Amino acid sequence: MTGGFTFKLVSKKVQYEFTVRRKIMRITGDSAAGKSELARTLLDAQNPRAGITVTCRYPCAVLDDQAFRAASREILKLSGRIKNHDSAEFYHAARRLLADYDNCLFFVDEDFSLLGSREFALFCKHTDSFFVLICRDCLGRLPYSYTDIYTMKTSGKFHTLVPKYNASDYMVLDEKRTFITEDSNAGFQFFDCFYNGVISARGKSKIRSLLTGICCKAEIIADGAAFGSEIDALQGELLRRHLDVILFLPESFEWLLLSSGLFSNDIVPDEALHPVSSVSGLYFSWEQYFTDFLMKITKNCENSYSKKRLNTCYYLPCCCKKNPNCNLIPAAKKKQAVLGMYLKKGNTKLP
């Protein structure tokens, strides 16, 4: 199952239409905007006499406590039997268990009692299906993109979705600030090579706790593809405390490398950088997709990529002569190639 498809629901009283781009999208906002009515009307559509039309590439269903009960019991049993949820054994067992739930667009309203539970997160992760979450809670167990958080706009019977956050507001780097990176691996290592005083938060959920000791201008660098569960609370805290902190949220560090001037279009075509209609629902987030793609195209190459330890090819000047076992375009200034287009105008010159 892949994204980029349209969902449309039409009844005598309401009409909803929007595009589903990624595995998880979240609809939030004020009460009485028509959010929960979407789930209720979709349930009513099961009655042919209701006169409700649903148009979608995939079957659509509302996942409530009753519908999820059987799957929840099986997931809990599996979790008890295989403790390591990141193991290949758990993955293959979960896929066999949840195969009947594949290829569906699930709608989940905020009255679903297990919305923030571990078993629901495992259900989402190991099911080749997409999810529309109608809730105000941020759901820290789910890695969804901040660009797929929407509010609902209503005009008469027509309901449309509006992105809550403008991605262009989170794609500027200010070199005069102190950088705080989400991770402590390849992304942190890259920025630490070029800037002084880079701080690692060691996880997106720990970023807010770091802000307590921040008294300077700072910029948070995180994987936008999985930052949706953190951005609401973080932005709220920045406003409450009047902190001079901004955010840089590319899809992921791997996406930054892939979209830089380091690879040719033959190796990294445009559709690989904007994979709305090609990423399988078995990827929990696009961050995983970009990591897998980068590791695949650099496997057995001089510039092979690892998240744990960043290959020197990505920050040191390239060899004078093209290495036949390296698929990077030779570049003397790696910082310029990867970050140049995002740097705030007026900053100091790149080395």
Question: How are the SSEs ordered, and which strands pair?
Answer:
Blueprint: E1 5-10, E2 15-20, E3 24-28, H1 35-44, E4 53-55, E5 60-62, H2 65-81, H3 88-98, E6 105-109, H4 118-125, E7 130-134, E8 149-155, E9 158-163, E10 178-181, H5 186-194, E11 199-200, H6 207-210, E12 218-221, H7 228-241, E13 245-248, H8 253-258, H9 270-273, H10 286-297, H11 334-339
Helix pairs in contact: 2-3, 2-4
Please tell me about this protein's structure.
The protein has 351 residues and is an alpha/beta fold. It is 29% helix and 17% strand. It has 11 helices and 13 strands. The chain has helices spanning 35-44, 65-81, 88-98, 118-125, 186-194, 207-210, 228-241, 253-258, 270-273, 286-297, 334-339; strands at residues 5-10, 15-20, 24-28, 53-55, 60-62, 105-109, 130-134, 149-155, 158-163, 178-181, 199-200, 218-221, 245-248. Strand 10 (178-181), helix 5 (186-194) and strand 11 (199-200) form a beta-alpha-beta unit. Helix 2 runs antiparallel to helix 3 (88-98) and helix 2 packs across helix 4 (118-125). The longest helix has 17 residues, at 65-81. The N and C termini lie far apart (44 Å). Residues 347-351 have low confidence and may be disordered.
